[in-house]
Amino acid sequence: MKSFKPITILLTSLITGLSSFQILAVETLDSHEHGSASLSIAIDDNLISIRFESPAVNIVGFEYQPTDEEQQARVTVAKNKLSNFDTSFKLQGESRCLVLQSSANWISDHDEHSEHENDISKTEHDDHSEHDNDTTKSDHDGHSEHENNVMKAEHAEFLVEFELQCEQIDNLTAIDVPLLALFPAIDEIDAQIIYPSGQLQQELTIDNTLINLSN
Who is most buried in 42, 77, 131, 160, counting CB within 10 A? Predict the structure, then answer.
């Protein structure tokens, strides 16, 4: 039985030939742009690998760690929608594809901030024992201000990946991307596609959601 490469390895190996300014999928959390998202598609032999990245604010309206049940529920609903291939993408042509893997993950620098906060809390806790109540109150206010600044500075995004196996890949003529209608806060998706006929770079908008592979 043929073994399948992990999605990230396949995409990386096929997109290596693109110039650096084209590889939008490697953007860091700090450099992301609200309203924009990136899409990388690699078609190799009978496999299709897809990687979609978007700032969380485009998907759920915020990009900090969920602070209540309502926000957490929005993240969960978004993950369910994004990980459903039939909701996120539409293949055109009788390619007879089967979804082998799918995932939708929330990626945040919250963990890094949390580790930093724990180090600060431990250090300042030792200092608190040497100060009176007024000093303790002052330090507490400093903690609150720091935590608020961390929340404001935090960035998060959704990372979505699919891997499909197709019995008749040559019949695939186009890929429609209804994500723009599903999440109206996304203004544009910068897409890069590598497939047997060559390479494509396309900006998708609500009025142009179709990636044509038949040319």
Answer: 160
